[in-house]
Amino acid sequence: MVLAGCHTAQVTDQRAMDIKHRMIVFDAADIDVETAFWAAFLDGTVEEWGDTWRAIWVDGGYALGVQLSPDHVPPEWPDGAPQQMHLDFYLVGIDAVDAAHEQVISLGGRLLKAAEDRAAARGFQVYADPAGHPFCLCWIPEPS
Amino acid sequence: MAIARFPSIVIDCPDPGALATFYGAMLDWKVEVSAGWAEVRADYGHCISFQQVEDYTPPVWPDQKVPQQMHFDVIVDDLDVGEAAVLDLGATKHDHQPGTTFRVFLDPAGHPFCLCVE
């Protein structure tokens, strides 16, 4: 859960493929609960693609998908079943993280790790979504 | 109003630079590598990050012994052309191919991803 920095050691131009859209897809045993959480979190609209798939549309693009995985084993971060990947959300200032925290909890999210130093200029708190996928609410300073 | 916007995904892996190079080439995004962390970033700001973890265990899909937890879908114009390109970058085609409108591959760290047609 390291905060992304600008410590550029190498910048490389790469060649292209014809990628039109990119979607991150969560596995979950209950796709409606999982989708409702993320649609509310992102203020998105839900598209139902059959019985096993949901897509969340935000600002003209697919923000997230949720795929039925009936035997889904939730991650147990930092030990246990691997998280494999997680989402970070950046907000300006810890007050914004505190406000988001209340909404996340009310939607069914769980706090996994509180901020280590609330006085720091940058930091993060770790949460789990209803299916157990970790995500972080990170705070950054006001842009100068 | 949304609680937060612009999710930035962070992928666990043993070698962030290698995986960032793979996805940077696939998406034509710029690659930035630092100690234990790497990013690929689009001109329009989207970002995928890669985080080094100890004792990394690749997912085993589709069973749930070591769950994939989540995966990427990317849209291409032509599955055959896309397949050749990602194999050339170091992807592996998965033995299990449950659909006809998408194909499942593994990235160099073993994370499943799909090439899809609209």
Automatic annotation (TrEMBL), chain A:
User: What domain of life does the UniProt record list for this protein's source?
Assistant: Bacteria
Secretion signal span: none
Identify the residues that the record assigns to the Glyoxalase-like domain, covering every copy: 23-138
Question: Under what name is this protein listed?
Answer: VOC family protein
Write down the species: Kribbella alba
The uppermost taxa in this organism's lineage are:
Bacteria, Bacillati, Actinomycetota, Actinomycetes, Propionibacteriales
Automatic annotation (TrEMBL), chain B:
Identify this protein by name: VOC family protein
Q: Where is the signal peptide?
A: none
- Coiled-coil spans are none
Concerning InterPro entries, the annotation shows: Glyas_Bleomycin-R_OHBP_Dase, Glyoxalase_6
Question: Gene3D superfamilies from the xrefs?
Answer: 2,3-Dihydroxybiphenyl 1,2-Dioxygenase, domain 1 (3.10.180.10)
The residues covered by the Glyoxalase-like domain are 8-116
